[in-house]
Specification:
The complex is a heterodimer of chains A (513) and B (183).
Chain A: H1 2-15, H2 18-36, H3 42-49, H4 58-83, H5 92-103, H6 107-140, H7 145-161, H8 167-182, E1 184-185, E2 192-193, H9 207-225, H10 229-241, H11 253-259, H12 261-276, H13 281-295, H14 308-332, H15 338-349, H16 356-361, H17 363-391, H18 399-418, H19 421-439, H20 444-467, H21 474-477, H22 479-512
Antiparallel strand pairs in A: 1-2
Chain B: H1 10-31, E1 37-38, E2 41-42, H2 46-75, H3 99-121, H4 123-138, H5 147-171
Antiparallel strand pairs in B: 1-2
Helix pairs in contact in B: 1-2, 3-4, 4-5
Classes of the chains: A mainly alpha (513), B mainly alpha (183).
Chain lengths: 513, 183
């Protein structure tokens, strides 16, 4: 325990180095700016810097990713409050309450409160990550090969059922990811398979090409097929009316006192634990926390009418989620949301295998990332103070120039990762496919998880079957495997069967009336 | 009778059809990899075959879901538009694309493939400049400004190429294909 504490202290010492701190600040600003611009996200920012991680050391890469993650969760609130355009989906609740305050002439207090809540939530999430992740990693060491197989199945299951729109589409997206992962060399026997007669496919589809295609190139198609000229002129007109200086963004004790320590803590803990669940993400964290805040509020009449508490609940939770989402990723190698899935890619690309082994034997490698998460949360109100008036101009950046630049960076990035034009083409094909899948309502996080975890799923399954000479009974007799299969059954009952039965009962009651 | 049946959307039936065809090609390749079990243990073709079967079942579930939703929507009487007091739904199904959007999409796909093919042949500078120019045209950048717009396009495309070059080659020391790498 003391050793782990010293590693955490070492993490803070590492980020205090000027070069690493530079990456932290740079990453934080990139994340904030990307999230503030509608259409761009923190995930996209990490996907774009992914090729550069080859030329950086692992620590700097992870520190930068953590800072982008934190900045990306916060940045969405800026345009959400000022122009009612949530830069990121997790800022929807903030837009809902914050823009009402903005129109009432209280925009500065909304922005200050969002920044303060994001900071508090981010700090609490990072502290919980530092304290709980090593404990969970110790427990994870007891998970054997059949248990690891069932754990990945559990992660797939949770991600699929968390797709509100359609469970079957979630399954299809996961299967597409798994199928793409099988292209190339068989992980267990080193036999070439699924190349369809194309020798170029022997090398398989690179993780970098998949991430860049799924998150950067697909966004280009989203933007080029959408029209937002009218919206932008209206936004620009709105922005011209706003005249703020840095004084408006100075944090005030009254802002903090309005919510209180207990409620901040509550919102952050909710966000953190929602983040731990695979597939939940910042939007779910913000929504669950907002709903709880509204239910237990002493001022419920303020909700839907510009509630500071509502903004605080959503922002504290979505920033605390950052710490939570990294727990399953670091301890089991299973990402909690899309951004942590891309960070998982950074770890894999740099030759690290996230899991209990890494957390116990290479804990020092990830502690700077944890420290970066905390420090970047502290940067939120500071940067708002200096850059607040400028943040709002981001929404008026020319779309053509912005997305053309991003497309070029993405395509060149896909090339530089392997110096292969084939992978560049693969990124493009994945981008086109991802665009159509997104339009059809197929969740990309399921696709990415299928692609990343597919090889592990197959290896653990085949190794387990090797032990019992091909008998699948091992999955039902091994206690750790049984535990995760039991969890699947519990989640299936509470998240699929019960809602289905209650909706059926409601329909029946309606029909009988 | 349904008052105004919805148009078929891409994601509803065409995408599952594409998945179905792709899965069939994938399965046929998997079947050529030899026996599914070897010495009683799963072989390299086991996982692809299992995934293909699961995909067929999932696609069937998707189709059933789409058909039942379609029937529900068509049976519903047309409702007057309401002023929504609910949260904006960013996950709502995407609206159908217009002709202009389709054309822009095809143009971007075409120029992106051209970029991939030309990247080594023309070198980074020329291919990136042309790619940027093509993308700006797809976004109709500066189209309303006449000759000035053309000049603006050329300047911005040069600027993008230069910034990306500085970013990758100068800042991070990554070697990019030079001009004249004709094979």
């Amino acid at each position: 325990m003391i050793e782990q504490f010293l590693h955490v202290v070492g993490g803070f010492q590492t980020i205090a180095e000027p070069a690493v701190f530079g990456y932290l600040v740079g990453g934080f600003l990139i994340g904030t700016i990307f999230a503030a611009i509608p259409g761009l996200t923190g995930t996209l920012a990490i996907a774009l810097i992914l090729p550069l991680t080859y030329s950086m050391d692992v620590t700097s890469s992870l520190v930068m990713c953590a800072a982008i993650f934190m900045g990306g969760q916060y940045g969405g609130s800026i345009t959400a409050i000022t122009v009612n355009i949530p830069g990121a989906p997790c800022a929807i609740m903030t837009a809902y309450e914050g823009n009402i305050l903005m129109r009432r002439g209280e925009g500065a207090i909304a922005l200050r409160s969002a920044a303060l809540a994001s900071m508090v939530g981010g700090v609490i999430g990072a502290i919980l990550l530092m304290t709980l992740a090593p404990v969970i990693a110790q427990a994870a060491l007891y998970v054997q090969t059949p248990g690891k197989f069932s754990l990945i199945l559990f992660a797939f299951f949770v991600i699929i059922i968390s797709n509100d729109r359609s469970i079957s589409k979630g399954i299809v997206a996961t299967l597409v990811g798994l199928m793409v992962a099988t292209i190339g060399i068989d992980v267990a026997s080193s036999k070439v398979r699924q190349t369809f007669g194309f020798p170029a496919l022997i090398e398989g589809i690179d993780l970098m090409a998949v991430i860049i295609g799924a998150f950067a190139i697909s966004e280009l198609f989203v933007q080029v097929t959408g029209s937002s000229t009218e919206d932008r002129s209206a936004t620009n007109n709105l922005l011209k009316k706003v005249k703020w200086s840095w004084r408006h963004f100075v944090p005030r004790w009254a802002d903090y006192h309005l919510i209180g320590t207990y409620r901040y803590l509550k919102f952050a803990v909710i966000g953190y634990f929602v983040g731990v669940l695979p597939g939940a993400g910042g939007s779910s964290a913000a929504f669950v926390s907002y709903a709880e805040a509204k239910r237990s509020s002493s001022r419920p009449e303020e909700y839907n009418n510009g509630s500071i508490e509502g903004i605080a609940a959503a922002e504290a939770a979505n920033n605390a989620m950052c710490g939570g989402a990294l727990v399953p990723m670091l301890t089991f190698g299973i990402p909690g949301d899309t951004t942590s899935a891309v960070i998982l890619g950074v770890l894999i690309i740099n030759g690290l295998q996230p899991g209990p082994q890494m957390m116990t034997e290479q804990f020092a490698i990830v502690t700077p990332m944890m420290a970066a998460l905390l420090v970047s949360a502290l940067l939120i109100p500071i940067t708002l103070l200096f850059l607040g008036p400028w943040y709002m101009r981001l929404v008026s950046i020319n779309k053509a120039v912005l997305f053309s630049s991003i497309a070029v960076i993405a395509m060149v990035g896909a090339y530089v990762s392997t110096f292969s034009v084939f992978q560049m083409g693969a990124a493009l094909v994945v981008g086109i496919g991802s665009y159509f899948m997104q339009r059809g309502g197929y969740p990309m996080v399921s696709f990415l998880l299928g692609f990343i975890l597919g090889p592990d799923l197959e290896v653990y399954m085949r190794r387990s079957l090797d032990i019992t000479d091909g008998s699948p009974s091992i999955f039902f007799t091994s206690p750790d495997s049984l535990f995760f299969l039991g969890l699947i059954a519990v989640f299936f009952y509470f998240m699929v069967m019960r809602p289905w039965m209650s909706s059926k009962r409601k329909r029946h009651r309606k029909n009988s009336v | 009778m349904p008052a105004n049946p919805r148009r078929f959307r891409f994601g509803e039936f065409i995408l599952p059809l594409i998945f179905f065809i792709s899965t069939t090609i994938y399965l046929s390749d998997a079947l050529q990899n030899g026996a599914i079990f070897r010495y009683g243990l799963p072989s390299a073709s086991f996982m692809p075959i299992v995934l293909s079967v699961a995909m067929y079942l999932a696609l069937l579930a998707v189709l059933i879901g789409q058909l039942s939703r379609r029937r529900t929507t068509n049976d519903r009487l047309p409702q007057p538009p309401q002023v929504s007091e609910e949260f904006p739904d960013l996950d709502a199904p995407a609206p159908p694309l217009g002709l202009g959007a389709h054309v822009a999409m095809v143009v971007v796909i075409a120029i992106s493939f051209f970029y991939v093919l030309a990247f080594r042949q023309l070198g980074f500078a020329m291919s990136t400049f042309l790619f940027s120019l093509g993308l700006l045209a797809a976004f109709q950048f500066g189209w309303s400004k006449g000759v000035l717009g053309i000049a603006l396009n050329l300047v911005v495309a040069t600027g993008i190429s230069l910034i990306v070059y500085l970013f990758f080659a100068v800042l991070f020391g990554i070697q990019l294909p030079g001009i004249g790498l004709l094979k």
